[in-house]
């Protein structure tokens, strides 16, 4: 049984920790963000992720350096928690992209 699970995980390139958490909690979602944004999304000392976890109860899992897909952020928990955490994380991504665009536009003299 363990061999079968390991083979399934390797074929689908699923992080084993994510697989176990998803199995225990039932629901998952994904948010995509460029890897260079991850440190801003996580926040200083994990503040942003901690805030999302505390307000929703969902787990937010960023890819490790070994993962093939570096853009996919997994969210795991109860359906309501996952939906709320996904919305909050997507808002953080949009705000980050908007702020970076504004910064780049300011430096280039557009504003």
Characterize the structure shown.
- The chain has 111 residues and is of the alpha+beta class.
- It has one domain (2-108): Ribosomal Protein S8, Chain: A, domain 1 (2-Layer Sandwich).
- Helix content is 59%, strand content 14%.
- The protein contains five helices and three strands, in the order ααβααββα.
- The model is unreliable at 1-13 (pLDDT under 50).
Helix count, DSSP H or I runs of 4 or more residues: 5
Biggest β-sheet: strands ordered side by side in the sheet: 1-3-2
CATH superfamily: K Homology domain, type 1
Instruction: From the alpha carbons, calculate the radius of gyration and give it in angstroms.
Output: 16 Å
CATH architecture: 2-Layer Sandwich
CATH T-level topology: Ribosomal Protein S8, Chain: A, domain 1
**Overall pLDDT level:** 81
What percent of residues are in strands? Answer: 5-15%
* Anisotropy-based shape: globular
Quaternary structure state of the chains depicted: single chain
Cα(first) to Cα(last) distance is 60 Å
Order of helices and strands: HHEHHEEH
Task: Tell me the structural class.
Answer: alpha+beta
Number of domains: 1
Poorly predicted runs: 1-13
For the report, how would you describe the main beta sheet? 3 strands, antiparallel
Proportion of helical residues: 55-70%
